[in-house]
UniProtKB/TrEMBL annotation:
Cofactor remark from the record: Binds 4 FAD per tetramer. Each FAD binding site is formed by three monomers.
Keywords: FAD, Flavoprotein, Methyltransferase, NADP, Nucleotide biosynthesis, Transferase
Gene symbol of the encoding locus: thyX
InterPro entries for the chain: Thymidylate_synthase_ThyX, Thymidylate_synthase_ThyX_sf
NCBIfam families assigned: thyX (TIGR02170)
Annotated protein name in UniProt: Flavin-dependent thymidylate synthase
Coiled-coil region list: none
Residue positions of the active site: R223
Species the sequence originates in: Roseivivax marinus
GO molecular function: flavin adenine dinucleotide binding; NADPH binding; thymidylate synthase (FAD) activity; thymidylate synthase activity
EC number: 2.1.1.148
Pathway(s) per entry: Pyrimidine metabolism; dTTP biosynthesis
Amino acid sequence: MPLSPEQLREVDDLRAETTPTLRATAPGMEQHLYTPVQVLDHGFVRVVDYMGDDAAITQAARVSYGRGTKSVSNDEGLIRYLMRHWHSTPFEMCEIKLHVKLPVFVARQWIRHRTANVNEYSARYSILDREFYIPAPDALAAQSVVNNQGRGEALQGEEAERVLRYLRDDAMRAYDHYEEMISTEGQQGLARELARMNLPANIYTQWYWKTDLHNLLHFLRLRADAHAQYEIRVYAEAIAGMVKDWVPFAYKAFEDYRMGGATLSAAAIDCVKRMIAGEEVTQENSGMSKGEWREFQGVIEG
């Protein structure tokens, strides 16, 4: 269970309590506040707090750029202009704080996004729960033959059953030994900060993660992408749904210009112009490497 009965009661109590405020609120995000969204088998993500909305982005932009934005007739148009021209500072006026429960190996990917404030559950002071991420059968895949950091086809039959058995058995055995090492019943017991090193990377941890909208969108661009690892992508997709309700204008611009758009090199733009003019362009006469050409074809051919 992602949240204990006590934690669920706490969420209900928090959502039931209302306080008058003069601060700006986003109705879409108010619906998400405190409510956990389940991710994977034991994980979740929930909004603990937030600041700002679409109006905060345009407010900051108009202070920064003054007369330069007067030709933009509305807030949505201004936000799209900012996104289109990579003016990132106004998006930093919005912030969000998330409570996330996730496997340790996902956390180690996630923490590479260093533009955030993080406070993680400490296994030096507390004992970790016996909760491990065990993939669903359709998420068990072989190594990709074309991508060194990707997956290939899903494992089938006896091989899939064998892998799942190893994952479960190894996790349980490691946790049994973890408990025995820190036991205080008739033995001195190993320090928790040392006993934790015996635990596998699929055990769950928790943290509070606070970041601004600009850096959150960068996180989503990389981690909600179809090429991202499945286990972190599902967290990014859950967060993306919250962001869409929080700042709808900014999220729509993000979808159009970042997730759905593409950046072309000077060589690629030259190739597009030559194609429009009717010239036959190939990898050999494009001025691009094979990898660049393959990616270029993926953009123009869909």
